Amino acid sequence: MDRKQFLIERMRLKNIKEEINNLEGVSVINIYERADIYPKYKDALDSIYKIEFPVLTTKEIGDENYKYVEYLYKYLKLQTDSYRWLVPGFNCSYWWLELEVSNLCNFIDYYSGNSSLDFTAIDTNNNLLFDIGLGEDDFEYCTIWL
After folding, report:
1. How far apart are CA 62 and CA 81, in angstroms?
2. Are 84 and 100 a contacting pair, CB within 8 Å?
3. Residue 23: C-alpha distances to residues 30, 107, 133, 145 (Å)
4. Residues linked to residue 122 through DSSP beta bridges, in sequence order
5. Please, are residues 140 and 101 in contact by the beta-carbon 8 Å criterion?
6. Least crowded by CB within 10 Å, which of 13, 28, 44, 137?
7. Model confidence, pTM
8. Which residues make Cβ contacts (< 8 Å) with residue 79, sequence separation at least 6?
9. What is the pLDDT of residues 47-72, one digit of tens each?
10. Which residues pair with 87 in a beta bridge?
11. For residue 51, what are the contacts with CB-CB under 8 A and spacing of at least 6?
């Protein structure tokens, strides 16, 4: 990455941090450059993005994006009061953010805005990589246990 692009990405990061600091129930634990991420995470992420990667389950399109995350955790029988996620390429940026999320609704509303949820994260507490995205008809869930 050239210096000019890196400076642009630094400004994006500054804006992202300010926005997250204003969200109730969300805090930044760590920030990583893409190059500093553990190779195991990169490899798992590459495999889950392949077109032929199997879909674990689907859910009908509903009205609140945070419910898709709740559904996945319920489906996998994972209990949690808060989420600790490493989010790759946070909001299409160069940065990977590790977050502690205790208010899921606030975070997902911020992350998805008014569009449908397209979210990939590594749950560091449960060693789980998951991708939630809108398929042809329903939301599709892909997961990898790390």
Report:
1. 23
2. yes
3. 16, 7, 23, 29
4. 86, 129
5. no
6. 137
7. 0.88
8. 73
9. 988 878 999 998 998 888 999 999 99
10. 97
11. none
